[in-house]
From TrEMBL, chains A, B:
Residue intervals passing through the bilayer: none
Pfam families in UniProt: AIRS, AIRS_C
NCBIfam families found in the cross-reference section: hypE (TIGR02124)
Protein name: Hydrogenase expression/formation protein HypE
Lineage: Bacteria, Bacillati, Actinomycetota, Actinomycetes, Kitasatosporales
Length: 356, 356
């Protein structure tokens, strides 16, 4: 490769294929899952890696190997604090990647696990994180098949960072992709939104809102299996993590070139989350979830899928929140309780850094 | 999972399944690939994850999915500096995982890529790293299929950390595992050892040894393909990265319960590496390589495999360095130039931290 010359490294010769909002340095928002993250992928990583698989921008890549249809996905986890009400970085590291595979309709099977540990972190902390991962993996029905541990000097990490990658098998006949959203589709969500983000922020800011809010981190693989059993032709699934429901819906609207209309009154926002969001100045539509999914289903299947979701422990509070329309392609519009409408935009960065 | 209680987290209830050399905190050596790393896997991760796939301790897991035989592997990269003579963290991130797959006899196909970036790092640096990854991926014949970017606050990371995981297809009839080393096998190495580690240390310490020593980072997938073409029944392949050739040989001796004898005079140590090691107080047998492999081959195939290796640009300087014996199972012994022998032990940690 060309880069074999040694210091001083001359970066002046490197030019970004398109301006990245005039940033010349990484800001927190580049990791937020919003517009800045998307720009980084579109203008920097995709051209550098130069391939079309990455450019599909799903949460998981769809691959075909030796006759098998596979989903392949990765996520790194840098959440602070490591332990929080309802879970830990270990739960997120397993469930996050398991859910990305499930959102491709795949049956999650194997995970890899890469730790980057900071010198000086207690072995008991690493042990507790690993046990949480093991427990979450058993619950989700996946095996941690391969791993790696690196250690960085004190002051050059932050306790425990984890990367997981996962592989799952996509059943024959299943074709779930953001591009398949179509006018007429009903949009379903599997339960209350904004819970994970508010749980993390409450801990981090030392806030209390009457009752403790617990993260919703969970494996959604079983829920998806039950949904596929009644409707193998699900169009789109997405777990609205970083950037929340608004970001996922905007990505889907853009990928499929459809409009999405939401009925704001039908959005399942628990009172505790609403109160916390009011206090923190957050919009629950943009707050991260770690155990919820949004599904796009043809209207004729919507009732059956909704019933299947409500019959599952993780989908008891599932509701329809809107539908796809041929108007305003690429745009998400919410009908407000007052009879008006508002555009639900893609966020620039993330309101809540290091939420996962 | 059990861990839903919130702060103060009580770690006193957590007990490590076996004492980890009396450490109660992570030290740099836990990331060094030696005995401390192995203890962390054996006593902490394997019991927590509770499965047998991980326990095989190969560089890649061997999986069967939908009729396909797959290799699956992961590595995180935290090397300092990010750019060094002969390559960059981007090259290592691609070649390291590609080589782990190739050492299972797999044809590397897809990589995932997870970045953990530190707030404030120049976009031009990220761009150069990504371009190096793209170039290395094209050379190795793999696609970066899925990715993720997280950002941590300034002072809680170190510029750029990268995790890659990879999937490759294992051809029918190929069965390459450390357990297959057998008495009588000839041990081959594909060229000069210790080059990568010395290249990094020279830069980091600002040392010069007459000529610039360049890292040997390279994809070994093509070399392995040529070796398999003449001998599908290779027993063991390993790329001696962290911990060097001594660590790889000890792992193989332990896994297969065979003895290994080396002819010290046959070890390909370049004069520049020997000089640097003498100056730095290092043993070249323990210094990391990033573009070399060691192969265990039945004696009757050794000449053909060695010839195939020498015919490949990355194997021109291949040599036989020893063989497997029924004596001293689990132990590596070197015949010195003076007619004596010495035990080549497993290192505790890594002489050179953050080498990859």
């Amino acid at each position: 490769m060309a880069d074999s010359a040694y210091a001083p490294v001359d970066f002046s010769s490197w030019t970004c294929p398109a301006p990245l909002r005039d940033h010349d340095r990484i800001v927190m928002g580049h990791g937020g899952g919003g517009t800045l993250s998307a720009e980084l992928v579109e203008h920097l990583f995709a051209p550098a890696f130069g391939n079309s698989v990455l450019a599909e921008l799903g949460d998981a890549a769809h691959l075909r190997m030796g006759g098998a249809r596979l989903a392949f996905s990765t996520d790194s986890f840098v959440v602070r604090p490591l332990f929080f009400p309802g879970g830990s970085i270990g739960d997120l590291a397993v469930n996050g990647t398991v859910n990305d595979l499930a959102m491709a309709g795949a049956v999650p099977a194997y995970l890899s696990c890469g730790f980057i540990l900071e010198e000086g972190v207690e072995l008991s902390v690493v042990g507790r994180v690993a046990e949480a991962m093991g427990e979450a993996a058993r619950t989700a029905g996946v095996l941690v098949a391969t791993g790696d541990t690196k250690v960085v000097d004190a002051g050059h990490g932050d306790g425990v960072f984890i990367n997981t990658a996962g592989i799952g098998l996509i059943p024959d006949g299943v074709d779930i992709r953001p591009q398949r959203a179509a006018p007429g589709d009903v949009v379903l969500v599997s339960g209350p939104i904004g819970v994970h983000g508010v749980a993390i922020m409450s801990v981090r800011e030392g806030l209390e809102f009457g009752v403790e809010i617990q993260s919703d981190t969970a494996s959604l693989a079983g829920l998806v299996a039950d949904m596929l059993a009644v409707c193998p032709d699900l169009h789109v699934l997405r777990d609205p993590t970083r950037g929340g429901l608004a970001t996922s819906l905007n990505e889907i609207a853009a990928a499929a070139r459809v409009g999405i209309t939401l009925d704001e009154r039908s959005l399942p926002v628990p009172e505790t989350v609403a109160n916390a969001c009011a206090f923190l100045g957050l919009d629950p539509l943009y707050v991260a979830n770690e155990g919820k999914l949004v599904a796009f289903v043809a209207a004729e299947h919507a009732d059956a899928v909704l019933a299947a979701m409500r019959a599952h422990p993780l989908g008891k509070e599932s509701v329809a929140i809107g539908h796809c329309v041929p108007d305003h392609p690429g745009m998400v519009v919410a009908a407000t309780g007052l009879g008006g409408t508002r555009v639900v935009d893609m966020p620039l960065g993330e309101q809540l850094p290091r939420i996962c």
